Amino acid sequence: MSTAESRRAKMVADHLRRRDIHDPRVLAAFATVPRERFVPDALADRAYDDAPLPIGEGQTISQPYVVAITAQALGLTGHERVLEIGTGSGYAAAILGMLAAEVFTIERIESLAQRAAETLAALGIENVHVHHADGTLGWPDEAPYDAIAVAAGAPAPPPALLAQLRLGGRLVIPTGPADAQRLVRITRRSETDYGEEDLGDVRFVPLLGEQGWPVPTPR
Ligand code: SAH
């Protein structure tokens, strides 16, 4: 077993399986995707810590456990079309790409979108499509989606994302004030009825955009 492979196996055992991650496909995805390729070279040593890490532009790659909770809550079987908001490094998108048929991921910071697209291409991942845009508006061109994952904290679920969810589809999103968010799973039960379940307390960088937090004006 290569070193990276054994470090991944240890991360899966210690940080995911030992907690409440039990979906075998989710565990297999985490045992396969090389997280060290999605973090800056200087942090490669820490790639398998269960922690967020800086990826530039003031943003972070999410903690593996939080990506796992999100992925597991989406209930993917391999046939779904998935939308992800907040590509960041592209790591979570790569995980989702292993669990679903097609992933469309949106990032508002162009340099991050570009780097993530390059990393995914270098790994030969072809079912993940990166776009540079304001993800609070979703990506209507490819809607509806079976599942939507939001990787940044929103004041409330953006109406555009609720509208782009297929009937029966799931949206996992951190919502609430910047310092105390809850991760919630919203299921679209009918044209107008959405159910909501609490998945626990989390802390994400803010979702900035038209249907998120206001974008700070540069000084
Ligand atoms: N899933 C990522 C974690 C990204 S952190 C990973 O695995 O690395 C959240 C990301 O959301 C940041 O890169 C931030 O720039 C982005 N973001 C914030 N608001 C956004 C918006 N309105 N649309 C798209 N991306 C957004």
Per CATH, the architecture is 3-Layer(aba) Sandwich
Number of strands: 9
Number of helices: 6
Q: Helix/strand/pairing class, anyone?
A: alpha/beta
**Share of β-strand residues:** 25-35%
Tell me about the biggest sheet?
7 strands, mixed
Number of structural domains:
1
Mean pLDDT score: 96
CATH superfamily: Vaccinia Virus protein VP39
Low-confidence sequence ranges? none
Basic shape = globular
- Portion of residues within helices: 25-40%
User: According to CATH, what is the topology?
Assistant: Rossmann fold
Strands ordered across the widest β-sheet: 5-4-3-6-7-8-9
Hetero compounds: S-adenosyl-L-homocysteine
- The CATH class name reads Alpha Beta
| H/E topology pattern | HHEEHEHEHEEHEEE
Distance between the termini: 51 Å
Query: Gyration radius, to the nearest Å?
Result: 16 Å
How does the SSE layout of this entry go?
Layout: H1 3-17, H2 24-32, E1 53-56, E2 59-61, H3 64-73, E3 81-85, H4 91-99, E4 102-107, H5 110-122, E5 128-132, E6 145-150, H6 159-163, E7 165-175, E8 181-188, E9 194-202
Parallel strand pairs: 3-4, 3-6, 4-5, 6-7
Antiparallel strand pairs: 1-2, 7-8, 8-9
